[in-house]
Design brief:
Blueprint: H1 2-18, H2 24-27, H3 44-58, H4 67-74, E1 79-81, H5 90-93, H6 104-134, H7 136-161, H8 195-212, H9 220-225, H10 229-242, H11 246-256, E2 291-295, H12 311-315, E3 328-330, E4 352-356, E5 359-362, E6 375-379, H13 380-394, H14 400-413, H15 424-438, H16 445-451, H17 478-483
Antiparallel strand pairs: 1-3, 2-6, 4-5
């Protein structure tokens, strides 16, 4: 027991020192003081601090504090690289990332598994002692948060390092499914589970989270930065969409939406709803009911994504109206920015700024260094569009509710446009296009390409890449390959 607790508290303390912390005044992180292994779970405060450490790891700049979203954007065709800097994802954009990459391939893998290992250790610690300290109800709340974060981490790993579920119905190699905390050396060997096996665990974790997380918290800030019941349900709609299980997408989404006509606001739990002005979603205080989960940032040292991880650093550029380094511009030739159906009157066009005749940037993230924009993980319009797509693919013709959901998202930002596709195929295309517009700069483009096994379109000097080609998914991290003798590469 002492050995296990010693490792758990050592892990959590190392997270505080090495990883970007959660917003301190919101999530009450662990004090920067020594805590012995004998008292790691002795008080409710210490147990709560370990939950905070899990979020702390999840919001690292190398994961959902920035680079998880960036990786999902720049593999697609909507952005053009401006700097040829390998540190900031040039190889990822060029679709030739290798296992020796010191940045995206290795670091995203490492951070995802650091979150997973922290969740595993916490779950074990709660079983040993923590539950008896905080009580069953609060324990289940905390365990629901840990299992939610573990599920979200595995989903991101599958997106980049495994073949899509549609390729063989989940039968292809997934990632190592680690459900036991690594406490000592010698526990690295673990073969890859199948894609389907990993998805089964993700769903089990999210089902547990849904059943045990609170309906809401006491403040809008906590409702935005901590997982609650609707957070788990919302992520399940993404998971089932990835699996092309459209019936389950509909079932899960209807738990939140529960309406057949606009405005399609949530009927239980946190009152999620589209905001009248999308700009407000991405400006302080970042706590509208549209933001189901975001990672909070402040200007306090160590409480923001850190060097070359920040969303605004990548997509924006000084001088005004930009604030960052302009690593990637918008593709105004063949990307979504060039879509003629995306009208000039659409409020979302306001996030796109022309800096020069050759440079068109996304300024959705607008805070200058140290770049404290909150990083979005999932927003309510995704649930609406997930439901719309599932309905559109399930029902013949132009499904009325799917079309209404689509227009609810479009008309929130462009009241003058009413989308009116004539066929089922046209409706599906319109929904996929709307996703590219709505979530530009939020990391969903690669997810959509992978789940549908679509060719990654050509962009600038980069040729298209088909699902059959090497590099369609990332190689396994070189570190994992060297430490895990049972690991196989892609």
């Amino acid at each position: 027991m002492r050995k296990q607790l010693r490792y758990i508290i050592s892990f959590c303390l190392s997270l505080m020192m090495m990883i970007t912390s959660c917003k301190r005044e919101l999530l009450s992180p662990v004090p920067q003081t020594f805590t012995t292994d004998l008292v790691a779970f002795d008080t409710r405060v210490r147990v709560a601090n370990q939950v905070n450490a899990l979020y702390q790891a999840f919001k690292s700049g190398t994961f959902y504090g920035g680079r998880a979203q960036i990786a999902g954007d720049i593999r697609g065709e909507d952005f053009i690289n401006q700097t040829t800097n390998g540190v900031t994802g040039y190889d990822v954009w060029f679709l030739n990332a290798t296992g020796t990459s010191q940045n995206f391939v290795k670091n995203l893998w490492a951070q995802a598994y650091q979150v997973i290992n922290g969740c595993n250790l916490f779950i074990e610690g709660m079983a040993d002692k923590g539950t008896s300290v905080v009580g069953t109800s609060l324990s289940n709340n905390y365990l629901g948060e840990a299992r939610f974060l573990r599920a979200a981490s595995y989903l991101k790993l599958l997106e980049h390092y495994a073949r899509p579920y549609a390729d063989g119905n989940g039968s292809k190699p997934g990632v190592p499914l680690r459900l036991t905390g690594i406490k000592v050396q010698g526990l690295s060997p673990l073969a890859r589970s199948t894609v389907a096996e990993v998805y089964t665990q993700i769903i089990a974790d999210l089902d547990f989270a849904e059943a045990n997380l609170p309906l809401n918290y006491t403040t809008a800030t906590l409702n935005t930065t901590r997982a609650h019941r609707n957070t788990a349900i919302a992520l399940k709609t993404r998971v089932y969409l990835a699996m092309q299980n459209y019936a389950k997408v509909i079932t899960e989404a209807n738990k939140i939406v529960g309406q057949n006509v606009a405005p399609f606001s949530a009927t239980s739990g946190v009152a999620h709803a589209l905001q009248s002005n999308i700009v407000n979603v991405f400006r302080t205080p970042y706590t509208t009911t549209e933001s189901i989960l975001s990672m909070p940032m402040t200007s306090t040292a160590g409480d923001n994504p850190g060097t070359q991880n920040q969303l605004a650093f990548y997509y924006s550029r000084t001088p005004a109206p930009g604030v960052g380094n302009g690593e990637f511009s918008l593709n105004s030739v063949s990307g979504i920015a060039a879509n003629t159906g995306w009208t000039a009157t659409d409020a979302r066009r306001g996030f796109n700024a022309t800096v020069s005749t050759r440079l068109y940037l996304n300024t959705k993230y607008s805070v200058a260094s140290p770049f404290t924009d909150w990083a979005p993980v999932i927003r309510y319009p995704e649930v609406l569009l997930n439901l719309a797509e599932a309905l559109a693919r399930t029902n013949v013709g132009v499904d009325i509710k799917a079309l209404a959901l689509l227009n609810a998202v479009r008309q929130r930002s462009d009241a003058t446009t009413i989308l009116a596709p004539l066929t089922q195929a046209d409706l599906i295309t319109a929904i996929l296009t709307e996703r590219r517009i709505e979530f530009l700069g939020e990391g969903l483009r690669n997810f959509d390409l992978m789940r549908l096994m679509q060719t990654i379109p050509a962009k600038s000097t980069v040729p298209a890449k088909t699902p059959a080609e090497q590099g369609y998914i990332w190689p396994i991290s070189a570190d994992e390959m060297s430490l895990n003798p049972l690991m196989t590469d892609n």
